[in-house]
Every structure is written in structure tokens, then in C-alpha cells.
Amino acid sequence: MNTPFLLQKLTLLTLIIFALLLSCSVRATHPNLVITQSDVFDMRKAITEQGRFASAYEKLKAKVDLQMALPIEVPIPKDGGGGYTHERHKKNYQLMYDAGILFQLTQDKAYADYVRSMLLAYAQLYPTLELHPARKVKSQNAGKLFWQSLNEAVWLVHTIQAYDLVYAALSAQDIDSIETKLLKPVVLFLSEGQPSTFNKVHNHGTWATAGVGMAGYVMDEPEWVEKALYDLQKSGKGGFLKQLDELFSPQGYYNEGPYYQRYALLPFITFAKAIANNEPQRKIFQYRDGILLKAIDTTIQLSYDGLFFPINDAIKSKGIDTIELVHGVALAYNLTGAAGYLDIARQQDHIILSGDGLKVAQALDNGLAEPYAFRSVAFGDGNDGKQGALVIMRSQLAGDQALLFKPAAQGLGHGHFDKLTWQFYDQAKEIVSDYGAARFLNVEAKFGGRYLPENESYAKQTVAHNTVVVDETSHFDGDVEVGNQNAPVLNYFETSPFGTVASAKIDTAYQGVELKRTIALVNLAEVEKTIVLDLFNVAASGKHQLDLPLHYQGQLIDTNVALSVSTDQLSALGTKNGYQHLWLKGRGLPKQRLAKVSWLNENGRFYTHTSLVNGQEEFLFTQLGANDPHFNLRNEQAFIRRVTNKNQHQFISVLEPHGEYNPGKEYTLEAESQLTELSYSQQGDVMLVDLTIAGVSYLIAINQAPEGASKQIFQYQDQSFFINGRLAVFAQNDN
């Protein structure tokens, strides 16, 4: 017997057996992305017990069972956003994901067979597809299944998880067909096929890298994972980690604003969870001092009464119950155990079937929720936190109130030209408003569900916001690239028992013009009121027309400005930069002293905006809707304070909530403003506002000194005062 030859054959046989065992062991590790085998074990036990998790399981099972009774539809792509084929493909990836979870929980192969059949149908369709017929003509990120590749990446993020969940039930032939004809082509299309999008530091790049990286873990393609993390060249100039570095400030604020922070959150946390489960040594949730956990918490803070603050290209109906944040809150609770997240989860009223979701469900069942603490905060913008800030001021003195001040960065392509703008919320309603995006999302009948032309011609223009417009031109002349290179400076932010104050400036929105705004949400404890104090300074090297719009929600009740009103014929206020969309309904030149505009909001409360005027400010009352042949714009109201031929001006005003209107019980209280006196002066670095409201005189002091925390002593009407910090409120009398 040839012993060496026998040993060689035994060695070869051993290697073959080892390879087969290794193959089996790899296969046995599925699922290995967001949901793990350990999660599945705990979840299977939980669905046999009473509680929120079992209820969520029964609800999902009934929904999926109903859909599985219908024929599988994988249509040839035809429609843009909101159209039938677009929505069908979205529904399909969600169905595959849900059925995959049910397979893991029930071990019923019917669910895996459903996912298998749909994946094979896609594997038959995908190789036949060219670029989507509804794509934008000049688009560089067109998809095949969808009109833009962003949606293709979202499809992959969900579909790869579904594939992972049913992998163990698939034959080798099924795996080969699905991977070679579908998943690998999608991965290559989204990565090598669109390098500019894949390497881009932007939410489109986030979805693409997440989908490709997760596919790498499932299909044992570590090279895909590396490219997803570091970009196609693995240079580190792009990729998932670069997005974590560049798109979030150190506090977790996302550069594109709350609406897109919510949208981008899901690929960030989903891919991060997959990284943590497959390569825990990367410590992804500790990356950048725990930036992802900060981002989840910041997303919650960027909301009021359950809805996100609508800045930039925002759809105003999106809120904390959005599925992206449901996943985020579940993850944050699992990682931190902070009971405040359970309060948000309770408001979301949506338990996801995952290991994280199980932890939330069990904690809620055990009554562990504690109130989530919303706070006044300035979220630094930009990757260094020094490119301006998004400021949130909150008060509970006269009900739940919030003020959003926006000396923030441009926000990339989704940003609007509205430096130093503000919004105000009270008693669960928007009072001083921002238009948000001009778009009917996924309503194909309305411009294909895409952004309307008026998003560019109005919503992004500066006059659509509550900030100064110089010579009827938008900030940065409407140039996104210039806007992205120039951010405001947050001079200071402080919150105290007196209220919250912030000041910011920018001198690049217009050449030769400095804009500086100081805004405060001030508590007047003696009269149990909260007011907004707004001081806007404009200083220019030449003379200009200065407009300061205020967009309000409600019915105009009264004004002491004598108006010349157009009653039988309207004309547009201007010809471009958003002015062409504003009907001029009335105008007037108030006399010196106080100009008041009052309106009634649907929350049953009155609001009066009082301006300190010197006889030079004209008031223009407008309604949105001019030059809008397709009725795309909402008919919202505003008034604009205008001065002309000025190189320096200070707009001073107070917003005062007051009274109550109850049509059901037929009573009205305090329908008229209670602010009777208002004056302004300055002592060195201290700005002083003297006002009388509800019979009580107040002196409000704001310390502008660079070393604002130091004690400042000043004189006013032969009296000595001191301020220790930025904001102080002195009640002069109590009549």
C-alpha cells in the first residue's frame, strides 16, 4: 500500500469535509443582520405569552396572511413616485421582509416559500430591465425598478434582510439564481454602476452603502463591506463612516434638517446593527463618541407635539411615529435602558418584531416608561458643530410652547435660503409658520409625486420664510453651492428660569450686508405669560430695500395699521424670487410707536405681533397663490414689514399669546392684546426692552458682551441693575 498516497487522499478528503462543514456552518449563521439567532429564540418564546409583542405578532401575521392569499405581482416598472408600479415594488419589499420575520418566528415554511417565489420572480425580471422609463432626463441616479436609484437602495436594504431571514430554507439552486441574477446585479448597479452616488456624502449615499454592505455580510462578500464602509476605492473619502463623520454634528444633528434626519436614520442604524452583529470589534455604536445614539435622541428633540419641525424640504405631517424612528427608539432603549425612550415608544404605538422591539414591548408591559425630557438646546451644525446651529427654545409656563430659531447651515441640496428665520408653536399648533416643501409626496397625479416647480420658485426662496430679504433677492442669490460654503455664526445661547435667548449673525447672505438677530422666549411669571422678543439688526455698506416677512397660521382678527385694501382685483407683489407668488391684498404705513397685528389660531388662542415702529416701516399684507396656474400652493397668509433706501435698520417686535375663543361654549376671553407699552434702549453691551403687559411693567435685559457669563451692572431710569448671564427679567411693579 502506498502510504504517502493514502495520506494525501485522506488529507484531501478531510479538506473537502472541512469545506462542507464550513459551508454548512456559514449557512447556519443566518439570520445575521439586524435579527440574530439569539433574538429569534427569545421572540419565539414571547409570541406564546400575552403582551404587546404577541399582539404585534398576531397583527402582522394577519396582515401578511391576507396578502399571501393573493397572487404575487412583480410588474414591469413604469410609474414614478406614487404610481402603481412604484408602490407595488415598495409593498413587495415590505412584504418579503415581514414574511421573512414570520418564517423565523413560526418556522412555517409557507412564509419562506412566499419570499422565495417573489425573489425568483425579481431574479427573472431584473436582468431584462433598462433604466427606469420615468427617470428624470438628466438624472445621474436613475434606478431600474424605481425612477431613482435611491428607492432601489431602499429596496435592497429591506430585501437583503428578507433574504437573510429565509436563507436557511432555500436550496442551493435557489440561492444561486437569486444571488447571481438579482442581488449581485443590484449591488453592482448601486455601487460600481453609480460611483458618484455611492461615494456621495448624502442620504442617497447612506442608503446605497447600507444596502451594499449588508448584502456583503449575507452573501459572504467582505470586499463589499469594505467598500460600503470606505467608498469604492476604500480611500475613506466616502462611504458609511465618512457619512457618520460629515453629516452629523458632534451633538447628532443631521445637516439636511429634521425631516431628512428622520429619513436617513433607518439605513444608519440598520447597517450599524448589522456591523455590530457581524464585526463587534469595530465598536460601531461607540464611533465618534456614540454619534448614532446621539442622532436618535436628537431626532426626537427635533419635534413638537409629535411632529418634526418643518425646515428645508420637509413634509409637515411627518412625526415621531415614523417607522425609521420606531426602529431608532427601540435600538436606543436596548443599548441604554433609558426609560424616557419608552415614553416615546408608547406614543409611537408600534412594536417592531425584532430583538430590540421585544425589549421595548416587555418594558412597556412592565410599566417602566418615564416621561421623555424635551429641553431647550442649541444643536451645533456641521461636522465640527461650528457651522451655525439649530436652536430650540421651550417653555411650560403658559402651556407647551416651542420656538425654533434657524441660524443653521444650508443643508446641502435640500436646504432653503432662510438664514436666521424662526417658527413658533403653542398648544399643539403651529403659530408662526414655515412653508416646508412644495410637494405632494407620492401623489403621482400631482407632478408625479416629485417636488413641484414651486418648491424652487417659492418654498426655497427667502421671502417664504421669516427673515430679512434684501432688495427682493434670496440669500446667496439662491445659489446652493455658495450657501453651503457660508453658515451663520451663533453668538450665544443660554437657557435659565427667565427663559431662553440666542443671538446669531451672518454677513455673507448678501454682499456688504450684516444680518444679526437676537430672539428670546421670555417667561413673565407674574402674569403667567410667555412672550417672544425679536430684535433684528441690519447694517449695510449701501442703501437697500429691507423686507421682514412673518407667515402666520390663523384668521386675521385686527390691526391698528390703516390699510389700503384691494377688494376687487389683486396683483402679485413682485416678479421673481418668490414675490411673484404673493398676492398683495393690502398695505399701510403705521404711525410712530406700536403697530399691532392680531390673529386667531385654530387652537382657540389669540396672538398679537407688536412692532416698535418709527413711521418708516410699511406693512404689506399678502396671500400665497399668485402665478400658480395648477393650484399647487397652499393659500397661506403673511405680512411684510418693509423699509426702503436704508443702510441700517432695527426691526423690534414682541409676539404675545393671549385669551381664548370657545365657539362651542360661546365665550371669548382677552381677545385684545394686553401689551400697552414697548420701548427699546441700550446700555453698553446690554440691550433693554421696557414693556407693560397685563398691567405689569417689565424690564428685559439681554447681555451681548463676549464674556456673557460675567456680571454686568447697568443704569436704567436712575436705578442700578445687574445681569448675571445673558438674560434677566425685572418686574417693575405688580398692579
Quantity of strands, as a count: 28
Q: Quick one: overall form?
A: elongated
Number of helices: 18
Strand percentage lies at 25-35%
User: Would you tell me the structural class of the helices and strands?
Assistant: alpha+beta
Main β-sheet description: 13 strands, antiparallel
Please estimate the helix content. 25-40%
Rg to the nearest angstrom? 29 Å
Detail the poorly predicted runs.
Answer: 3-7, 12-28
Mean pLDDT: 94
What gap, in angstroms, lies between the N and C termini?
A: 116 Å
Task: Give an account of the 3D structure.
The structure is a single chain. The chain has 735 residues and is α+β, with helices and mostly antiparallel strands. Helix content is 34%, strand content 27%. Strands 8, 9, 10, 11, 12, 13, 14, 15, 16, 17, 18, 19 and 20 form a 13-stranded antiparallel β-sheet that branches. A five-stranded antiparallel β-sheet has the order 3-4-5-6-7, with no helix packed on it. Strands 23-24-25-28 form a four-stranded antiparallel β-sheet, with no helix packed on it. Helix 12 (258-278) runs antiparallel to helix 13 (287-301) and helix 14 (323-336) packs across helix 16. The longest helix has 26 residues, at 3-28. The chain is elongated and about 90 Å long. The chain starts with a helix and ends with a strand.
